[in-house]
Amino acid sequence: MRLSRYFLPTMKENPSEAQIVSHRLMLRAGMIRQSSAGIYSWLPLGLRVLRNIEQVVREEQDAMGCHEVLMPTIQPADLWRQSDRYDDYGPEMLRIKDRHDRDMLYGPTNEEQITEIFAGSVRSYKDLPQMLYHIQWKFRDEIRPRFGVMRGREFLMKDAYSFDLSVEDGRRSYNKFFLAYLKTYARLGLKAIPMAADTGPIGGDMSHEFLILADTGESEIACHRDYLEMDWSASDTGYDDDLQPVIDGFTSKYAATDEMRDAAAESALGDDLRTARGIEVGHIFFFGTKYSDKLGAKVAGPDGEEITVEMGSYGIGVSRLAGAIIEASHDDNGIIWPESIAPFKVGLINLKAGDEDCDAACDKAYADLRGKGVEVLYDDRNTRAGGKFADMDLIGLPWQLVIGPRGVKSGTVELKNRATGEREELSIESALTRLLV
Questions:
Q1: pTM beyond 0.85, yes or no
Q2: Over the stretch 339-375, which tens digit does the pLDDT of each residue have?
Q3: Nearest of 329, 394, 425, 311 to residue 9 by alpha carbon
Q4: How sure is the predictor about 205, in pLDDT bands with cuts at 50, 70 and 90?
Q5: Burial (Cβ within 10 Å: 0-12, 13-18, ≥19) of residue 142
Q6: Measured between alpha carbons, how far is 26 from 11 in angstroms, rounded to an integer?
Q7: First to last CA, the chain
Q8: Is 407 left (phi over 0), alpha (psi -120 to 50) or beta?
Q9: Cis omega (within 30 of 0) on the bond before 129?
Q10: Which long-range contacts (CB under 8 A, 24 or more apart) does 238-247 make?
């Protein structure tokens, strides 16, 4: 993509309405623009990041055997009345009426909708277990939306649901999602610590939040110091393994969110206690028959008896992750994207647009990289070099390939690693080879 033709409205100054780093940088980097309080338009650069995060989440859900569906944003209120949540959910739910005066709502979550689908489709225990997910926009009417996409009213979320014949089977499904989340966050370049959590309005008797550590985190967490050094990727563990010992290993030591902290347990840890600010990036629940009982999700068991299925739900805030990753990965100059979700892998900088030799070298490098499937943002604008460097640092692409007249004459280019700041002068062939890895 040539930057001269790309819609990238960057800003030099920090916007006054932005209180945290991710909000400031997303606005300055031209990723988002506010439509109304807590509701944002995603501009081309931001949308590329959002889609890349979504794809990592999708691939890990697919890998664990979860099947993608797509449910509507607007749901009938009667479903929520069946589960007794319509009146209990509170003013965060946007309640509306259609032209026939029927009560509807903009879904804040989908337990009722997916349970109705299951109840009308599955009749036998032989069809269990089932795991279904979708990636869809949600709406919660936050009384005080703030921090950009971190605490918005409209947000993109992956929510998944498990259906099992027994509590034991349900916990096995829960463990699969737990593992999938560890793998997902590792691919996104994050260390997300699972912590026992309150079930809130979702309900259930087992729940974990996944939190990344950041100075601007929304809540204070406390944990054993060993958790700060652990490898959370669980990359060698397969979904057919006995996962309970693995999960126990990741949850055996003290880790608690604000509402779950235990003063006595923390006192006993002594010097091993660490406190920090945390950002929630995922939440999983096992709630048994809370919804299946009320919405008739039952199957015929091996002996013909009717069995109410056991359920769980599993959420990842896809749009929130864009902000959370920036909170965890930035410097004074801008964003530092992990390669797995960067909007482009390489920022190609032409130091003297209009110079025949420089243009030819840049055009060739651009064509060669694109021909090999590398996504490149080519700054071919006729502007000063300082502005080009500043913009590339701001938007945070993993690599910067800098080509100028002097380098063209000597057959060299500069390759900069955005994360480390390391710069190398090398031949164009060597630079391209490095970028193809």
A1: yes
A2: 999 999 999 999 999 999 999 999 999 999 999 999 9
A3: 394
A4: low
A5: middle
A6: 10
A7: 20
A8: alpha
A9: yes
A10: 239/63, 239/64, 239/65, 239/176, 239/179, 239/180, 243/172, 243/175, 243/176, 243/178, 243/179, 244/171, 244/175, 246/175, 246/179, 247/175, 247/178, 247/179
Angle, helix 318-328 to helix 21-28, in steps of 10 degrees: 100
**Closest by Cα among 82, 143, 151 to 111:** 82
Backbone angles phi, psi at 360, to 5 degrees: -65, -45
Please identify which residue in the block is written with the tokens 């509402």: 259
* Distance (Å, whole) CA 20 – CA 327: 8
DSSP category for residue 398: S
* pLDDT number for residue 16: 87
Tens digits of residue pLDDT in 109-136? 999 999 999 999 999 999 999 999 999 9
The whole-angstrom separation of Cα 309 and Cα 362 is: 60
Residue 91 buriedness (CB in 10 A; 0-12 / 13-18 / 19+): exposed
Strands, sheet with 423-427, edge to edge from the N-terminal-most edge strand: 376-379, 346-350, 399-403, 412-417, 423-427
Helices of type H across 235-278? 244-251, 263-269
Q: What is the mean pLDDT of residues 25-49?
A: 97
> If we measure between CA atoms, which residue out of 364, 2, 298 comes closest to residue 164?
298
Query: Is 334's pLDDT higher than 90?
Result: yes
Is a pLDDT exceeding 60 seen at residue 199? no
Confidence check: pLDDT of 197 > 80: no
State the average pLDDT over residues 234-259: 88
308, β-bridge pairs: 298
DSSP 340-372: TT-S-SEEEEETTTT-HHHHHHHHHHHHHHHHT
Banded model confidence at residue 401, pLDDT cuts 50, 70, 90: very high
Residue 328, C-beta contacts closer than 8 angstroms, at least 6 positions apart: 189, 190, 212, 213, 214, 279
Render 87-151 in DSSP notation, one character per residue.
TTS-TTSEEEE-TT--EEEE-S--HHHHHHHHHTT--BGGG--EEEEEEEEEE---SS-BTGGGB
